[in-house]
Specification:
The protein has eleven helices and eight strands. The protein is α/β, with parallel strands linked by helices and 266 residues long. It has a single domain (8-265), classed as TIM Barrel. Helix 10 links the parallel strand 7 (212-216) and strand 8. Bound molecules: phosphoenolpyruvate (PEP). Phosphoenolpyruvate is lined by residues 13, 171, 176-177, 216-219, 237-241.
């Protein structure tokens, strides 16, 4: 269970970017540049090969290591895949599951994503489950149905005792890495309420209220505070802007300010 102060979470998804040297430099700059590390939870998710390099840079800091994907088996003949056990062995605490690029570019189904969620949680990882509708689905008024399906199938069979290790990221597909279409903070707010309502029906109001829910989709220094200031948005998942230390640190700073504002209010 969390304390009363809800610290903001800032998660960096580097996707398939950086060289080993860049990964090292970027993580070093981030660790050294966070103004108030105990007022925010920061997670860096580099590409698989750079997990050990980034993990070395994060050791002894309050910045956590995360992975962008996982295979839902402990070990075996699964060429090219990476197990939860391997991620834990490299000191990963978090794993992103069901990112829209894996759903839409790599064809991952809700049921396969569900296997990952259940297996990763059972193995002891903290899972960030990504959900979100495409532009076409939003325009056809299907947002609620899509989120309903992604959440109910994605979380099927998740045991109550592991819920404290689960978080959900709402990432409208049309707003990810998109200069043309941006979700407004109000749209993000409204959809977050919808997600919490669904979660409340599925896991009960108490857990739904406790769960960390992120927003992701072209968050940058100029709009981070507006998203982080919305009721129900506990953090942000950052793609493009997480690859530049100064931009990412500015977003982390927005998270610190929001956490501090929350501390003033309580
Ligand atoms: C993402 O990859 O999850 C993401 C939100 O990317 P971007 O910030 O670039 O839109």
């Amino acid at each position: 269970m969390k304390t009363e102060i809800r610290q903001k979470f800032i998660v960096a998804n580097w996707k398939m970017h950086t060289t080993s040297f860049e990964a090292q430099q970027l993580s070093k700059s981030i660790v050294e540049g966070i103004a108030a590390p105990d007022h925010v939870t920061v997670v860096l998710c580099p590409p698989f090969p750079y997990l050990p390099i980034v993990g070395d840079m994060l050791r002894g800091s309050r910045v956590a290591l995360g992975a962008q994907n996982v295979y839902p088996e402990a070990e075996g003949a699964f060429t090219g895949e990476v197990s939860p056990t391997m991620l834990l062995d490299l000191d990963c605490k978090y794993v992103i599951v069901g990112h829209s690029e894996r759903r839409h570019k790599l064809g991952e189904s809700d049921s396969f994503i569900n296997r990952k969620v259940v297996c990763a949680l059972a193995s002891g990882l903290d899972v960030i489950l990504c959900v979100g509708e495409t532009l076409e689905q939003r325009q056809k008024g299907q947002t609620e149905a899509v989120l309903d399906r992604q959440l109910s199938t994605g979380l099927a069979g998740v045991r109550p005792e592991v819920l404290s290790h689960l978080s959900v990221a709402y990432e409208p597909v049309w707003a990810i890495g998109n200069d043309e279409h941006h979700a407004t903070p109000q749209q993000a707010h409204d959809t977050h309420l919808l997600i919490r309502e669904k979660l409340s029906q599925m896991i009960g109001a108490t857990w739904s209220g406790e769960l960390t829910v992120y927003y992701g989709g072209s968050v940058e220094p100029g709009n981070a505070a507006a998203f982080l200031g919305q009721e129900g948005i506990d953090g942000v998942l950052i793609g493009g802007a997480s690859l530049k230390a100064d931009e990412f640190l500015a977003i982390v700073n927005a998270g610190i300010l929001e956490t501090e504002a929350e501390m003033q209010r309580t």
